[in-house]
Amino acid sequence: MKSLAAILVKSGAELVVDEVEIPSSLEAGQVLVRVITSGICGAQINEIDAAKGPDIFLPHLLGHEGYCEVIETGPEVNKLTAGDHAVMHWRPGSGKQSRTPLYKWEGTTVNAGWVTTFNQYSVVSENRLTRIKPFALSRDLLPLLGCALTTSFGVLHRELQLNESDKVLIFGAGGVGLSMIKILNSIGVSKLCAVDISEEKLDLAKKFGATDLVHFEDKQKALSAIKKCFSQELPVVAIDTTGNTKCIELAYETTSPQGTVMLVGVPKIGEKSSFYTLPLHFGKQIVGSSGGGSKPEIDIPILIGKIESAEINFSDFPTERYSLKQINDAIANLRDGRAGRMIIDMELK
């Protein structure tokens, strides 16, 4: 069996869209799925650019948030059956963790992780799939439950446990940042300032519930604008979704003395932030997040329920559809700062 797939052959290069051979049999814990839609996350840009160091797995497949239909299950798979629909996620959930699959392309082995979504058919580990009712939400929104929405929910509810009295500063109004703003707006936080280099994204942040906006032109101007925004009551929480070292420094410098800096974005390898450590001895915290500590089998149903009941409104969340053959165009637009989420729809030609 063959599948059209986007293959990373060389770091920093465009993906090669071609047919790969799917493994002829499923091993314990593996599930063959038909991908319906996939999101493109900033993490894939980092993978393509080898932002965390040399890529030793080339060539390999990509993608870690998607929506799919189960085609076949391998041995020891107990929570899914053929015909089920599921969210594909990078965070491990319930079920067995399988070995990672190997595909073939022009006589070459193509590596893959426990989940890949930039391919029409994918072999996925059972614990990277969470069953949902078919088309519980829009086919464009469902992939975001695999990363952007669950990460945002996990950071805000599991790790920070924010409430309406908190004052929050968010760096980055991309897919995760905008999702956080939506969720924080549903909580009713009293002060929510969004910082970004894009005026278009800041307009969306305002529309989605940010009370204040700061256009990041340079660090000193942004620092002055943030302090003016919060006056004497500095935010108790600053969340960085960008991985930009200057934004991380700003987050540290503008939180209250007992505030928390939550790092969601990851800087490129070799890039470092600099700050004075004394406040750390008196209550300030810097915390790194791995996907918000999300538990997909718990958080995905909760989020679907909140969105279906309109407790959180995602009806106007911006998405843009592309075919798999157009994936390099979608990646280019993401790099250029296009607002919202780029969605690969496998049914588009």
The number of helices is: 8
**Elements, N to C (H/E):** EEEHEEEEEEEHEHEHEHEHEEHEHE
For the record, the CATH architecture of the largest domain stands as Alpha-Beta Complex
By helix and strand content, what is the structural category? alpha/beta
Q: Beta fraction of the residues?
A: 25-35%
The CATH topology annotation of the largest domain reads as Quinone Oxidoreductase, Chain A, domain 1
**Helix percent band:** 10-25%
State the end-to-end distance: 20 Å
Quantity of strands, as a count: 18
Low-confidence stretches: none
CATH class of the largest domain equals Alpha Beta
Search tags:
Rossmann fold; 2 domains; 349 residues; 6-stranded parallel β-sheet; Quinone Oxidoreductase, Chain A, domain 1; 25% helix; 7-stranded mixed β-sheet; 8 helices; 18 strands; alpha/beta
Could you walk me through the main structural features you see in this protein, from its secondary elements to its overall organization?
This protein has 349 residues and is of the alpha/beta class. It folds into two domains: 2-141 and 317-345, Alpha-Beta Complex (Quinone Oxidoreductase, Chain A, domain 1); 151-292, NAD(P)-binding Rossmann-like Domain (Rossmann fold). It contains eight helices and 18 strands. The chain has helices spanning 42-48, 148-159, 175-187, 199-208, 219-230, 245-254, 296-308, 327-335; strands at 2-8, 16-21, 30-39, 60-61, 65-73, 85-89, 102-105, 108-111, 121-125, 129-132, 167-171, 191-196, 212-215, 237-240, 260-263, 285-288, 319-322, 341-345. The strands form four sheets. Strands 3, 5, 6, 9, 10, 17 and 18 form a seven-stranded mixed β-sheet that branches. Helix 4 links the parallel strand 12 (191-196) and strand 13. The protein is globular. The protein starts with a strand and ends with a strand.
